[in-house]
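Q: Convert this sequence to structure tokens.
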Amino acid sequence: MAAIDCTDCYLAIAIGDGVKRALVRHFAAFLAGQLAALGVTPRSDAALDKMDRDAWRLAARVVKEVEAEIDSAFDETLLAPDPQKTVQDLLAAAVEIAIGETEQRYLGDDIFGFAGLLETFASGEFGAAPHAP
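A:
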């Protein structure tokens, strides 16, 4: 029997669904907090759906950035005494950094960020309005 060449393989880090769901929940709360600080309340399903889509989009951005960051550090972690724990520690740190950067970009993006969300809500199209005094 001829030997099988097994050099065509790789190791990868997969970010679990639990982390992804936690990121979506984080960004949903972040958006709700930003709106609440301005006295805006989403009143319709369409408004809540828009916020949900933005939360998913922001979470996906963080996952993509973190995967790239972790992937570049992966080779070093294989040499650690406990590679799984090392990867989890790296992931936690990378997620925190990516969340902060993503929030800042979202708040500063006039078209696809928070300003765009506010403009959409202000148009009345999504049934969001300032809190009643």
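The chain has one domain: 17-124.
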